[in-house]
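Interim report to the steering committee. The following record documents the input for 2-aminomuconic semialdehyde dehydrogenase-like (204 residues).
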Amino acid sequence: MDIPRSVQNFRFFASSILHHTSECTQMDHVGCLHYTVRAPVGIAGLISPWNLPLYLLTWKVAPAIAAGNTVIAKPSELTSVTAWMMCKLLERAGVPPGVVNIVFGTGPRVGEALVSHPEVPLISFTGSQPTAERITQLSAPHCKKLSLELGGKNPAIIFEDANLKECIPTTVQSSFANQLPERSFNNGNLVISCCSLKPSMDFS
């Protein structure tokens, strides 16, 4: 899952940026023009988690460089080698030096330095709410642009009139297999996975 989707991320955003060829769009139904200016911000600080180390990192890197930014990415300290290998592949693909930069270390030491740096105007973070609250505190004095993707809770409720032969397998699939029933992705370590089951009937 990680590698194929990472490839799709780069292809999608490389193609998407080509469709924004005009800053002005005619809005006939209201008789006016819609004007949008898309401009790079400069340096994007990208902080990605451990559970999909390549996919979620490329989900941030690809749109940032497609929009004309350079990036400083801080992967999870648990998956540093994955980020380093991605950089080597980008280098082989011809991405100029200095466009994609990786810093390694823990959140309190390296992450906070990245978030609070005055020359990094944009922070994109995927992770926990407590860390996001800390990022908000550090970035507020600089009025940085923030994108925060935090953890999710996805309960499943089984009602008394449910078809158990159908709902039990699909509920288990939503908790562990995530998308394809024949394959297990991350053993449920995704924010979109079902995390708790709340039956409304007595199974005893």
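Residues 2-19 form the longest helix (18 residues). The committee is asked to note this result when reviewing the revised timeline.
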